[in-house]
From TrEMBL:
Similarity remark: Belongs to the thymidine/pyrimidine-nucleoside phosphorylase family.
Keywords tagged on the record: Glycosyltransferase, Transferase
Organism expressing this protein natively: Lacticaseibacillus mingshuiensis
Cofactor(s) in the UniProt record: K(+)
Catalysis performed (reactions): thymidine + phosphate = 2-deoxy-alpha-D-ribose 1-phosphate + thymine; uridine + phosphate = alpha-D-ribose 1-phosphate + uracil; 2'-deoxyuridine + phosphate = 2-deoxy-alpha-D-ribose 1-phosphate + uracil
General function of this protein: Catalyzes phosphorolysis of the pyrimidine nucleosides uridine, thymidine and 2'-deoxyuridine with the formation of the corresponding pyrimidine base and ribose-1-phosphate.
Top EC class of this enzyme: transferase
Coiled-coil features, chain-numbered ranges: none
Molecular function as annotated in GO: pyrimidine-nucleoside phosphorylase activity
Lineage of the organism: Bacteria, Bacillati, Bacillota, Bacilli, Lactobacillales
Residue span, Pyrimidine nucleoside phosphorylase C-terminal domain: 345-418
Assembly and oligomerization: Homodimer.
Protein name: Pyrimidine-nucleoside phosphorylase
SMART domains: PYNP_C (SM00941)
E.C. designation(s): 2.4.2.2
Length: 436
């Protein structure tokens, strides 16, 4: 085979065979296909798309480039959740202990934040002593003992994806649904889970800006999961304002603890319970979403989920006393209010602008190797739909030094105030299941 023939085949909108896709990924990883040819192939894919079969084969070829975790020693169905990333999305943190408290194993492999979206691992590292780098044996042992672990990827899961993603990042080919879906799924299948719930974010603060794009991605993800023998379901959820009221690492841990105490913002609670219910059904706890929802609510109400979180923190070397004393989490030196300059109703909040502001405060990464300030962030005092009076505090900026006026202004501008209350829109927009 010749790479140039595969590039022209894709450029002309034809369908590649399994053998061709396997060959091109294998040759690329072996250093036989140069970056410029792979870049041309990625651009051709960006414009021509892929069939379900092609994108599954691409995921499998990238999966085969590296290790695969064997979780078969953990009894029962193992369930994970994957979010396509949003601002203030701390759901994995309350969700994992909640589902584990109900007897379902959650081996969660998470990532770090980049750009305006935060990462679960960074958030957890604001708990003093918490370790996310476990060996494979420690990871498996902990899931067996505690029922859950949240770790960074150990071993070499889908190295082809890592190299291709780096190329996509600099060739304008990140925003391609088959490339995104195969990239996510190569790593998720490698992580050895049997079942997956996807949270596909839709809106200005998300990768997928429109509902149609998000639905397409969700369908691609569940189709690849099905081809890999992994049970799955995807929820499309709104990201047209930040999730919850905190953005920033230790602030989001405190909010997660509030959820586990059966308190906290309504949207975070609703989504945590909805995703937990889907995970419980996939794990075979019950076939009724209503029963699963009640189970999740009970475990939040009676403290089982909170106790499981303490257990998880302790098992990963962290100081579980932060659960009872969240004020011992890293705290910013300054709290600066951002106030409304007009009155009306809050009609929208630019989640991406707020995520970027937190990154500029030091709470997120502009580059992969940036070191984070875990204490800084934003606390929202208003959410979409609430009335606002001139002079009201819209958000509190938590900073370690006096924030620049431009940053405070960007935060203020992110809160859009109109004359009329906006129409209420649902948080959970759609459920996408694999085709039968
Ligand atoms: N996340 C991934 O893992 N891959 C993509 O391509 C996009 C988001």
């Amino acid at each position: 085979m010749r790479m140039v023939d595969l590039i022209t085949k894709k450029r002309d909108g034809k369908t590649l065979t399994k053998e061709e896709i396997t060959w091109l990924i294998g040759q690329y990883v072996a250093g036989e296909v140069p970056d410029y040819q792979m870049s041309a192939f990625l651009m051709a894919t960006y414009f021509q798309g892929m069939t379900d079969e092609e994108q599954s084969q691409l995921a499998f070829a990238m999966l085969d480039s590296g290790d695969r975790l064997d979780l078969s020693s953990i009894p029962g169905i193992k369930v994970d959740k994957h979010s396509t990333g949003g601002v203030g999305d701390k759901i994995s943190i309350p969700l994992t202990p909640l589902v584990a408290a109900l007897g379902v194993s959650v081996p969660m492999i998470s990532g770090r934040g980049l750009g305006h979206t935060g990462g679960t691992l960074d958030k957890l590292e604001s708990i003093p002593g918490f370790k996310v780098d476990l060996t494979e044996t420690q990871f498996i042992d902990q899931v067996q003992d505690v029922g859950a672990a949240i770790v960074s990827a150990s071993g070499d899961l889908a190295p082809a994806d890592r190299r291709i993603y780096a190329l996509r990042d600099v060739t304008g080919t990140v925003e391609s649904i088959p490339l995104i879906a195969s990239s996510i799924m190569s790593k998720k299948i490698a992580s050895g889970t049997n079942a997956l719930v996807f949270d596909v974010k839709v809106g200005e603060g998300a990768f997928m800006k429109t509902r149609a794009q998000a639905e397409k991605l969700a369908k691609a993800l569940v189709a690849i999961a099905k081809a890999a023998g992994v049970a799955s379901v995807a929820l499309l959820t709104a990201m047209d304002q930040p999730l919850g009221v905190t953005i920033g690492n230790s602030l989001e841990i405190a909010e997660s603890v509030a959820i586990l105490r059966n308190q906290g913002p309504a949207d975070v609670r609703q989504l945590t319970i909805a995703l937990a219910a889907q995970m419980l059904v996939l794990a075979g706890k019950t076939d009724s979403l209503e029963v699963a929802t009640n189970l999740a609510e009970d475990a939040l109400r009676d403290g089982r989920a909170l106790r499981k979180f303490k257990q998880l923190i302790t098992a990963q070397g962290g100081d579980a006393s932060i659960v009872d004393q969240p004020q011992t989490l890293p705290q910013a030196k300054l709290k600066v209010p951002v106030k409304a300059t007009t009155s009306g109703y809050l009609t929208s909040i630019d989640a991406e602008a707020l995520g970027t502001a937190v990154m500029q405060l030091g709470g997120g990464r502009a580059k992969q190797d940036d070191v984070l300030d875990l204490a800084v962030g934003l606390v929202l005092h208003k959410k979409v739909g609430t009335p606002v009076h001139e002079g009201d505090t819209l958000a509190m900026v938590h900073a370690d030094s006096e924030p620049q006026e431009a940053l405070l202004e960007a935060v203020r501008q992110a809160f859009v105030i109109g004359e009329a209350a906006p129409e209420k829109t649902p948080l959970i927009l759609q459920v996408v299941r694999p085709e039968a």
